[in-house]
């Protein structure tokens, strides 16, 4: 993580607190949250929340702190335009192969696994217990949820959400702007944006029924 002074977390919801908890477990001593909806005097584990970025010293690193993919993109763009260094927060309890790569502004939770030659894009979440195996790619601003699996040589596009416990089997591609429901299994490549559920995963029609 870059920055000499501390970690600035953009947001104060559940994901922001998860990021903070991992950062603290990693030994970060100084945290600050920024959330325009914060109430007066709010804090988390003694660390303050501000409504704006005024009077924040130089030298801090920052990371998106929201779970929504599109909002994380906005936070990354804001941070870059403001000249802030984007940090990665990667749990010391995660397993990240030395030949894997993680682009700036991403979060990797406790007990996640990122395998050899895997590539994680900017502003991503690889959450608690999730697996991104060897030679797989996860595009920018995607979210690999708790205990979900991206098997080897798979390709996940940008703005993808993999629900809790979802699985993408070996060598399969998932296009951009796709949501995979909790527990679903993707057994063939998907390209049409939308929400997919079930095993094998099928796209939901507007009426809420799977398209077969």
Question: What does this molecule look like?
Answer:
- By secondary structure, this protein is mostly beta strands.
- The protein has two domains: 7-87, Rossmann fold, CATH 3.40.50; 90-204, 3 Solenoid (UDP N-Acetylglucosamine Acyltransferase, domain 1), CATH 2.160.10.10.
- It has helices spanning 14-25, 69-81; strands at residues 7-10, 31-34, 43-44, 47-50, 61-64, 85-86, 89-90, 95-96, 101-102, 107-108, 113-114, 119-120, 125-126, 131-132, 137-138, 143-144, 149-150, 155-156, 161-162, 167-168, 173-174, 178-180, 185-186, 194-197, 202-204, 210-211.
- Strands 7-10-13-16-19-22-24-25-26 form a nine-stranded mixed sheet, covered by helices on one side.
- The chain is globular.
User: Which term fits the overall shape?
Assistant: globular
Query: Order of strands in the sheet with the most strands?
Result: 7-10-13-16-19-22-24-25-26
- Corresponding CATH architecture of the largest domain: 3 Solenoid
What would you call the structural class?
mainly beta
As a percent range, the share of helical residues equals 10-25%
Radius of gyration: 17 Å
Based on DSSP secondary structure assignment, what is the total number of beta strands? 26
What fraction of the residues are assigned to beta strands by DSSP?
25-35%
Query: Which CATH top level class of the largest domain fits?
Result: Mainly Beta
Multimeric state: single chain
Overall pLDDT score = 91
Number of helices: 2
- Biggest sheet record: 9 strands, mixed
Spans of 5+ residues with little confidence (pLDDT < 50)? none
CATH level-3 fold name of the largest domain: UDP N-Acetylglucosamine Acyltransferase, domain 1
Query: Going by CATH, what is the homologous superfamily of the largest domain?
Result: Hexapeptide repeat proteins
The topology string of helices and strands comes to: EHEEEEHEEEEEEEEEEEEEEEEEEEEE
Terminal residue distance: 45 Å
Number of domains: 2
